[in-house]
Amino acid sequence: MSLEGKLVSEINIKCDGDVFHEIFRHRPHHISTMSSDKVQNVDIHEGEWGIVGSVIFWNFTDNIETHHLTGKLVSEINIKSDGDVFHEIFRYRPHHISSMSPGYIQNVDIHEGEWGTVGSVIVWNFTHDGKEKVAKNVIEEIDEEKKLVKFKVTGGDILEDYNSFYVTVHVDTKGEDNIVTWILEYEKKNCNVPDPHTLMELCLNITKDIETHHLN
């Protein structure tokens, strides 16, 4: 029973329904001119168009796998320490994080530019899944109003599994509540690569360590 399935989807169209039906019955070979990026060719191999028993060959492009290779993870965590300080750490002094979260971050060095500026290149030495790894990234965006910093990974271990990888961290401060939001955006190299849930867990654990450091 579990090997059998059925998918049903409905969509509302504004064009003529009789014409739509007529296309799929009598002239599916015209679809390649209407949807050329998805259907390249439709040929009849036996019988005639529009009759039961006719055999039709479809040449088409399946973009489903490509769609599933891209993804986005979002996590929020509430911290009791100062939200402005948290943002300032990731913008201006991520090289201090190794002293706040030594179990996860061993070293952070700047290779190009200056701390806290868009375009600066930063190299992180970190521990992930029990292994020491390296990530080279560039600061792609800074938004002081949103307390946001966005990094683009440009080298290192992460890109062994992903064609692209972006990390965004921002802080919402509302009274005594400080909510840190992490966003991971990525494209996997193939469908066997897992979604980066363990990397998200790493970000949350680092957040907790920074919070603990400032509360002690």
UniProtKB/TrEMBL annotation:
GO annotation terms (biological process): defense response
Gene3D superfamilies according to UniProt: 3.30.530.20
Alphabetized Pfam families for the sequence: Bet_v_1
All residue ranges annotated as the Bet v I/Major latex protein domain in the record: 68-216
Protein name: MLP 34
Species of provenance: Solanum tuberosum (Potato)
Lineage, broadest ranks: Eukaryota, Viridiplantae, Streptophyta, Embryophyta, Tracheophyta
